[in-house]
Automatic annotation (TrEMBL):
Sorted UniProt keywords: Cytoplasm, Hydrolase, Protease, Thiol protease
Active site: 149
Role summary: Removes 5-oxoproline from various penultimate amino acid residues except L-proline.
One BP annotation, GO: proteolysis
PANTHER family (UniProt xref): PROTEASE FAMILY C15 PYROGLUTAMYL-PEPTIDASE I-RELATED (PTHR23402), PYROGLUTAMYL-PEPTIDASE I (PTHR23402:SF1)
GO molecular function: pyroglutamyl-peptidase activity
Localisation: Cytoplasm
Full protein name: Pyroglutamyl-peptidase I
Length: 209
């Protein structure tokens, strides 16, 4: 922060299952090419679809970059829009990851709240992006799916005191190209940063619950 820039970390997931090319990482790479403007330092990271990798990687990202905002991007085969997830869930992780592993407890953070909401008002972000004339539809959701996406989101919200976001994208060309998804992510993130800037006086993103 010494240079006056805000720091943002954006992650996408690696391949899994039928997603040999993960649309989320393609979209994040497109976002990296576009950037978030001269006042934002953007760092991107590919995340393996593995619970234990997420457990070690997320705290290190917060420690290394001390970002104002972390946004995780994942692919959903059921999605046809860019979907802003409002909250992460702590329980119900029964699906095996790429290493054929899932937590014994089927839980993300033992003793943690059942659900953590993002401090970002996703409905406002959604409304403003949809009103901007973007050629990509944006919607909101309260269920990130109880797999690595939801798990990552909950852990990130837990680490950040709610100052994280999760965006689901559809598979490539169903119906959007990687380039379209990159532009949509950029519009979404700029709205999130605008909202956080307005709320800066409360400093709620520094709190750790």
């Amino acid at each position: 922060m010494d240079n006056g820039k805000r720091t943002v970390v954006v992650t996408g997931f690696g391949p899994f299952g039928e997603h040999a090319v993960n649309a989320s990482w393609v979209a994040v790479q497109e976002l990296e090419l576009l950037g978030l403007g001269p006042d934002v330092q953007l760092h991107v990271q590919e995340v393996p679809v593995e619970y234990q990798a997420v457990n070690s990687l997320l705290p290190s990202l917060w420690e290394q970059y001390q970002p104002q905002l972390v946004v995780h991007v994942g692919v959903s085969g059921a999605a046809t829009t860019v979907t802003l997830e409002m909250c992460g869930h702590n329980h119900g992780y029964k699906r095996l990851d790429n290493c054929r592993f899932c937590p014994d407890t089927q839980c993300c953070v033992e003793g943690g709240a059942d659900c953590i909401d993002s401090v970002i008002d996703m409905e406002t972000v959604c409304r403003r992006v949809n009103a901007s004339g973007l050629d990509v539809a944006v919607t909101v959701s309260k269920d990130a799916g109880r797999y690595l996406c939801d798990y990552t989101y909950y852990l990130s919200l837990h680490l950040s005191g709610g100052c994280s976001a999760f965006v689901h994208v559809p598979p490539l060309e169903e119906p959007y190209s990687g380039e379209q998804l990159g532009h949509a992510l950029r519009a979404v993130l700029l709205e999130m940063l605008e909202q956080l800037g307005q709320d800066q006086g409360t400093n709620h993103c520094k709190h750790r619950h």
